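Hey team,

Filing this mostly as a record. A colleague (T.K.) asked me to run one chain through the structure pipeline before their review meeting, and I want the input and output archived in the tracker in case anyone asks later how it was produced. No errors, nothing strange. Just documentation.

Input sequence:
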Amino acid sequence: MQYLLLIYDTEADWTKLSQADQANIYKEYGELTQSITQSGHFKAGQQLQPVATATTVRVRDKKRVVTDGPFAETKEQLGGFYMIEAKDLDDAIAVAARIPSARFGSIEVRPIVERNRP
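Output structure:
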């Protein structure tokens, strides 16, 4: 089964970290990515640009409304994701718990709907 692990943290807190601390966290992410690739869990993953670069699109009454910025102001912002293959939810949670941002942010584990495609 595939799961999307959505990585939320606070951008403002990230910018307060020293460059050395940021480098250590990036190193941990690299090691995690290598580990879950070797274990067969990894399907995809990327870090996202800062939330200030987001554009939100809505269609209301058949009219497109485009807004600079994220969908909603929140304490934590979506910073990246991993798409993984896991045998079950417990396996996916175990991988999510290894994500460095779980220590200071949160990881949302969402199963992916798998549909038969023609």
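Quick notes for T.K.: The mean pLDDT is 91. The helical segments are 11-16, 19-38, 89-97.
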